[in-house]
Amino acid sequence: MKRRHAILIAISLAVATLAGDAMPMTLVRPSEDGKHFVLADSGQQFVAWGFNYDHDADGRLLEDYWLGEWPTVVEDFNEMKALGANTVRIHLQTDQFMNGPNEPNATSLRQLGRLVKLAEQTGLYLDVTGLGCYHKQDVPRWYDPLGESARWDVQARFWEAVAQTCAGSDAIFCYDLMNEPILPGADKVETDWLAGDFAGSHFVQRIALDLAGRTRQEVAKAWVDKLVAAIRKHDNRHLVTVGVIPWALTFPGAKPLFYSEPVGEKLDFVSVHFYPQRDEVDKALTALKVYEIGKPLVIEETFALSCGIQELNAFIDGSRPAADGYLGFYWGKTLDQYRQTRDDIAAAIVADWLDYFRTKTPEILDR
Q1: What are phi and psi of 293, to 5 degrees?
Q2: Buried-most residue among 63, 143, 322, 335 (CB within 10 A)?
Q3: Nearby residues of 9 by Cβ (< 8 Å), 6 or more positions away
Q4: What integer pLDDT is reported at residue 366 of this predicted model?
């Protein structure tokens, strides 16, 4: 039934596209004071509210099924929209978009363009996060042996190709350079570009293995500036950010690296990932203040991973004076499907989250 429904949705969207009946969307920009987001045509404040669409219920990454099971993607976008979302964060993998150091993957770029059209049709803005190496076994054999400079060159070519594909669409909310980049310690030389795994996936990636006498700020700034320049070759309209781990939550007193001056000079807004711990909502809110630097701030990942829905709600409510967006997670199954799953604690947690998201939507978007 789910697949049949998806096919019908796909057909209707295809007909609408041929008729030129795309939903009108407006470019999202920083406000005049630089502290919030606004819609470019009206100046109305925009709050990003939506989901990370990083894998399906079986753990497959988007590129694993978006070619052969496109109706599923169409259905998922409609389901996220029906829950009240206005923004979807997608995670693009390096191996799927680069055939080699100098050759972008034309098939993946065409499919990305198709996804952008789908976003326009459904009225969902895209947070396009790149350079993923989430499944270590899929990292290209030619990629990891590259030195830092050559690896950065590949990353710049990735972003040139993606920006060229997306530049013309107002459905692009932002480009996120990389999910949770990190650097080695001052006196340590690393040997692996990927940090430890979480549930079998590697979400954290190093941008250097050796500081080689440079400061962390110097390395981070050079990397950010190089990738932003690659994007700006083709796209001067859309926002650029980088999603970071809130080290101030783990190490009280820690200062931002990528959002320090002048490292974050070319980043348009702050993206930070917060998973409040049980009985530690106040601690999370205190850590969040470190990232209030006068730019829009999006909590790009959040979920009731280590706390209950009530505490997550307390965190969201407590952060609303500072935050300009929240992105949780959607993994391809509906609220009803999760509710029908019996004796499954994980399914019950996700169901509670989706129900919360749906009921919270009017309060967030009426801001």
Answers
A1: -120, 15
A2: 63
A3: 71, 74, 75, 78
A4: 86
